[in-house]
Amino acid sequence: MSTGGQVVSAVATVGVLLGGVWLLGDLLDTTPETREPAVCSSSADPTPAARGKVSGAQLCAALNRADLPELLGTPTEQAVIASGSENESTWFDGTKTVTPEATVELDTYTVELSASYEDLPVAEAVGYLGSGAETRRVLGHTAALYSGRTIGISFRLDGSDPESAPGGVARQLLVATDPKDSGSTFELVIYRQDSQIPDDAALFRVAEKVLPTLPGWKPAT
Fold this sequence. Notes:
With 221 residues, this protein is α+β, with helices and mostly antiparallel strands. 25% of the residues lie in helices and 32% in strands. The radius of gyration is 26 Å and the shape is globular.
């Protein structure tokens, strides 16, 4: 090979090596990725709020608070998903009801918050919540604590239909919006991503901080 050819070859080889070093540096970069807490996304129709009812967007804004991870006992985490919406249901007689709800998901816990205006007092609803339901008091309001089940869904890489199976335990707290338990309610639900049993103390801490900030909440005197 001529001298000129050797120089070109050497330069090309060094270029390839440097490119490899840069690529290796990118692959081995251990600088922690910073991410901001999730903000509420919403497809909420503002109409329910205009009728004096809370909207999904308002529920999300109240639930997705800066101290939520601390209230849940996971202070180093932050919200990764936050959303609010209104779900409309049509009953057999044609009656339509709108349920505003919000979800905030962290690495350990998922928290859900919803509102109901179906004129069913908590004291009466306890009879429909199963034998394990317990009557409680939250900030002077009638409440019911009970358990539910999440559903686990697995997706297969081969393109076949997803499979579902019972998931973990969800702890649910139904609370009257006013001290007289006149029929409107808020409900908080927490469950863990690892399917372990949620901490009831965390559920009550969230309830005591979030519920008084919601439109329609009437404090006990």
